[in-house]
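(Structure overview)
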Amino acid sequence: MGTSQNRAERLLALMDVLRDGQLHRAEDLAATLGVSLRTVYRDMKTLMASGVAVEGARGTGYRAQTALTLPPLNLTETELEALHIGLAVVGTGMEGELRAAAESLSAKIDAVLPEEAGGVVQGFGFASYPFDLSARALRHLEPLRTAIRAKQKLRLVTQDGARDVRPLKLRYWGRVWVLAVWDETGNAFAEQRVDQITEITPLPGLFVEEPGKSLRDFEAQL
């Protein structure tokens, strides 16, 4: 196993090595994976923080505790989106054990996603907020995702009026869904809370990326 492995493969490989329940020194894990000691320490910290049943510390070694494990799954981006939304719904409508489980599951998924992943899988995260806002936002997610992929201009109507936009990316900001856009009306980047949108209308024609108006430019500005 070489250093060209992405983070997801490396974490799965670590879990596979530790599954025997034996104590493994960090130096041996680093040699097995072909990475640095620092990378092993960081990966072990990630596994522990995301709820994987691993115990140990630097200088003593690491071992896996008894826990339920699933075989590796290859998920499409659409499947990840469905899982993302489902966790948000559980976190919105549930309390106690189920809410905590949704948060824990989200953290585990986030920990093993490839570092270079884009779209919804980047910063998978978990968010919840009052149910009325959740219901309002969730009904808009599918048409917004479709428009982002198709590069379809939209007219968004909110209580502040209507504006024509280029939808760039859906993400969580704080505790709400937010749509990053290039605002054709205001000639600037903007972020629109999805729960505040009352109407979405596709506009004729598609847009192409232009310097100063792309998602890359928006993220550079941030």
